[in-house]
Amino acid sequence: MPNSLPLVQQNTYKSERPKVSVCCITYNHRKFIEQCIAGILTQETDFRVEILIHDDASTDGTSQIVRRYAEQYPHLIKCICQEVNQYSKGERAFPRLIAQSKGDYIAFCEGDDFWNCSRKLQDQAKFLAENQEYAICFHDTDMVDEDGKLISGSLLDRAVAETPVYTAEDIIGGKQIPTLSAMFVNRPIRFVRQYFSITNEDNYIFSMLSEYGNAYKIEGNRGSYRRHGGGVWSSMPQCQQRLAAMASKRAITIGISSQYRSFAAFRYGRHAARTFLFSLALLEIKPAAKSLLHYLESLVLCLFYSLHYHKGPIAGMARFASLLIPPARLLSRSSK
Q1: pLDDT in tens, 141-184
Q2: 60: helix, strand or coil
């Protein structure tokens, strides 16, 4: 395709292999899903794009909207509409969609978020094709409320603007990549058993991908993250968010390659220590006890990985020793 065309005009290229697969998961997003799909369909590219939409047995009519779009654009959209909610059974949609993706690159956009730049896919795919040392390309997004009113003009801190490259350690450590902003290489991802019980799946996926290369932030704000009462993460109390992030770091520690396991265990332990202190301060006994057990587990994992896998044993043991410092000292350091 010599010229960039809106996706809805690309029906003549349906025989070509897609270069980008867009993965969209949705559940009870009736109020938002059309804006999400519209943001995808208005993309202008000089390559074929496939759109995979997974509806997890919505009860508000979302699935009917998704099916209508799939019938209208069968050359673009493939919908997977579940009859029984899979998330409640411990299944996750992203591994299913990634496995079905045929593109060289994969982009995410959940059903309550949306893109607002028609060249988003074109620019990101071009960057990854020309800079093959990178595995992930992302950008800044703003934050809007349920009605689309602006809450914040940026989801990323200023440090990212100054240093747009994320290393594997940055990503494993928790530096934010907005899910709706990410495009990444379609490479095998290990989904360990612990992954299927975590909430914030994106950090796990991006951490696994970091083994293939760094992440790079391109210029511009190209999408909107929506915060609303029905959102899984935004509706959780802060203490529960900390526990969920801790579970994610544990899964990353178990799933990541041996090269990064010592570091991942260290970050897991540091987060567990902070969560323990945070829970104690709020007199949340059960979360405090749970995070303390995770902290003790992280000590064992950090020691084991430092001795068996870390390419620099001294540095690995230094990480282990730093976890033995009384957790109160961790309060003075920034949380990741």
Answers
A1: 999 999 999 999 999 876 666 789 999 999 999 899 999 999 99
A2: coil
Q: Are 49 and 121 in contact (CB under 8 A)?
A: yes
Nearest to 48 by CA among 86, 23, 12, 78: 12
Q: How far is CA 67 from the centre of its chain?
A: 25
Q: 84-101 as b/e, with b when 16 or more CB fall inside 10 Å?
A: eebeeeeebbbebbbeeb
DSSP 28: S
| pLDDT, tens digit, 9 for 90 and up, residues 22-70 | 999 999 999 999 999 999 999 999 999 999 999 999 999 999 999 999 9
Read off the amino acid at residue 40. I
Q: Which residue, 252, 260, 267, 332, is CA-closest to 298?
A: 267
CA atoms of 12 and 123, how far apart (whole Å): 22
| Measured torsion, CA atoms of residues 88, 23, 80, 76, in degrees rounded to the nearest 10 | 170
Where exactly are the structural domains of the chain?
A: 5-226, 238-332
pTM of the model: 0.89
pLDDT at 288 over 90: no
C-alpha 191/C-alpha 136 separation (Å) is 18
Q: What's the distance, Cα to Cα, between the start and end of the chain in Å?
A: 43
Q: Would you say domain 5-226 falls under CATH 3.30.540.10?
A: no
Distance (Å, whole) CA 7 – CA 319? 49
